[in-house]
TrEMBL record:
Keywords: EGF-like domain, Membrane, Signal, Transmembrane, Transmembrane helix. This is CNTP4 protein. The lineage of its organism: Eukaryota, Metazoa, Chordata, Craniata, Vertebrata. Transmembrane segments: none annotated. It comes from Uria aalge. Pfam families: F5_F8_type_C, Laminin_G_2. It comes from the Eukaryota. One of its GO terms (cellular component) is membrane. It is a single-pass type I membrane protein. It is found in: Membrane. SMART domains: FA58C, LamG.
Length: 285
């Protein structure tokens, strides 16, 4: 009715779904009860999705977050999200409501347009970015991207040098593994290989963010909100790497003994290398 949303039956199986029309960055939500009624929701979950099929619950402080709702029909309860959601679809799921009334909600969603560049990989392709060494600092590298996939294995990123040095970011059984290999063990006998694993169940067809920052010999590896900081004991500064990055697979078969490794099958979003928008470059050829 005109007073807001009130389902015919008040139980824990009801939900109100919104289609925002496109993927949007959501920063806050607000609720009221049904207009001029004794119907309001006191607690609710918030769920979000890109497709309307595959849903994720809003989490805060490492657990599913129950939002405190209303204590009467007309006061607005506004909640600024601790971290924004990027989604097209939202679901408000009532948990509890006024015991002397029914489920009743009026809602507002706050946010802004989310700008993104997405590229799809079919498991047989890769995107190669070759850059000019004159304009690059050897002391600093920052790579960021988002990915989503249903496959538990695949190469996300690879960079290789003439002497066998290489950096590989690979999804293995739903976890992300960052492998830094210093090919010449005679020159670098200690710490010849670094292998850091982060995340789990990353093959859930939801977006996950990755950030790799390398300053001198300090490396920060972040997956979603979890960061692993490590020092490469000086050798990482001397990695002999080509001025070429490959996303989604390893271009030359057999390099680095990687014949058994699978190419990535899924989507990448907003790939940046030192501030350069790689997907935009590819679109513009």
């Amino acid at each position: 009715g005109a007073g807001g949303w009130s389902p015919l039956v008040s139980n824990k199986y009801q939900w109100l779904q919104i289609d925002l029309g496109e993927r949007t960055e959501i920063t806050a939500v607000a609720t009221q009860g049904g207009y001029g009624s004794s119907d309001w929701v006191t607690n609710y979950f918030l769920m979000f999705s890109d497709s309307g099929q595959n849903w994720k619950q809003y989490r805060q402080e490492e657990s599913i977050w129950a939002f405190s709702g209303n204590t009467n029909a007309d006061s607005v309860v506004y909640y600024k999200l601790q971290h924004s959601i990027k989604a097209r679809f939202l679901r408000f799921v009532p948990l509890d409501w006024n015991p002397n009334g029914r489920i009743g909600m009026r809602i507002e969603v706050y946010g802004c347009t989310y700008r993104s560049e997405v590229v799809d990989f079919d498991g047989k392709s890769c995107l190669i970015y070759t850059f000019n060494q004159k304009f690059m600092s050897a002391l600093k590298d920052v790579i960021s991207l988002k990915f989503k996939t249903m496959q538990s294995d695949g190469i996300l990123l690879h960079r290789e040098g003439q002497n066998g040095d290489h950096i590989t970011l690979e999804l293995i059984k739903g976890k992300l593994s960052l492998l830094i290999n210093l090919g010449d063990t005679k020159t670098h006998p200690s710490n010849a290989q670094i292998n850091i694993t982060l995340g789990s169940l990353l093959d859930d067809q939801h977006w996950h963010s990755v950030l790799i920052e390398h300053f001198n010999n300090q490396v920060n590896f972040t997956v979603d909100k979890h960061t692993h900081h490590f020092h490469a004991k000086g050798e990482f500064s001397y990695l002999d790497l080509d001025y070429e990055l490959s996303f989604g697979g390893i271009p030359a078969p057999g390099k680095s003994g990687t014949l058994s490794r699978r190419n990535f099958h899924g989507c990448f979003e907003n790939i940046y290398y030192n501030g350069v928008n790689i997907i935009d470059l590819a679109r513009r050829r």
